[in-house]
Amino acid sequence: MTGGNQAMLEEAFHRGAEDGSAALAKWLGRPVTLSVDRLEMLPIESAASVLGSGDEPVCGCAMGISGAVGGLLLLAADDVAALSLADTLLEQPQGSSTAWGELERSAVIETANIVGCAYLNALCAILTPENDVGILPSPPVFLRDFPATVMEAALMEQPHLGDTVLLANSEFRISGTSFRCRLVFVPDAAGLKAYAHKPADPEPRL
């Protein structure tokens, strides 16, 4: 994939962060800022380590994707940060959530659904603007385990993936409280090939 194509992917992720911020702020009725660091492209063989290599559990919400953009999208965070996010979403004091009950899961799943759809719409708009097929995300699947196990389980949700993993370290800021997470996008083989051959803009738009 060329530098221009990577720049388009980075633009899509930054636009997705802007759209996701607006959608979450509307849903929560509170100020929300979602930001992403520079996109990192890794071989699929490195997928098991992109969420870390520690022995502390992480949580993730995985969405399978089909349509104009195909593959897998995963939003993940360490257990402490994810439970802290759940407390903020549920408008309760920090530390109230000590285990993953139905309310905590529902809160982070809905957040992942809103953020994931914002990213997917941005990817679709920038990478395939001439395609009116759209995207068909699956409902997010909640996963909690050791980092490598979560990533492997997410990859199993979508069998026809390409050979590249796109990783962006992200940050939620809600009402002044920040939460770090990782956004992982694994395009399917057909989608990755299309992106690689898509003409890049003469000048990056970032």
Can you describe this structure?
There is one protein chain. The protein is of the alpha+beta class and 206 residues long. The protein has one domain (3-196): Chemotaxis protein chec (3-Layer(aba) Sandwich), CATH 3.40.1550. The protein is 39% helix and 28% strand. Strands 1, 2, 3, 4, 5, 6, 7 and 8 form an 8-stranded antiparallel beta sheet that branches.
Quick structural summary:
The chain has 206 residues and is α+β, with helices and mostly antiparallel strands. The protein has helices spanning 3-28, 79-89, 102-127, 147-156, 189-196; strands at 32-36, 40-43, 58-67, 71-78, 135-137, 141-145, 164-174, 177-187.
Strand and helix map with partners:
Elements: H1 3-28, E1 32-36, E2 40-43, E3 58-67, E4 71-78, H2 79-89, H3 102-127, E5 135-137, E6 141-145, H4 147-156, E7 164-174, E8 177-187, H5 189-196
Question: What count of domains describes the coordinates?
Answer: 1
> Helices and strands, in N-to-C order?
HEEEEHHEEHEEH
- Which stretches of 5+ consecutive residues score pLDDT under 50? 202-206
Shape: globular
Distance between the termini: 18 Å
Strand content: 25-35%
Alpha-beta content class: alpha+beta
CATH class category: Alpha Beta
Arithmetic mean pLDDT: 83
CATH architecture: 3-Layer(aba) Sandwich
According to CATH, the fold-level topology is Chemotaxis protein chec
Main sheet specs: 8 strands, antiparallel
DSSP helix fraction = 25-40%
Instruction: Tally the beta strands.
Output: 8
The whole-angstrom Rg is: 16 Å
Can you count the helices? 5
Going by CATH, the homologous superfamily would be CheC-like
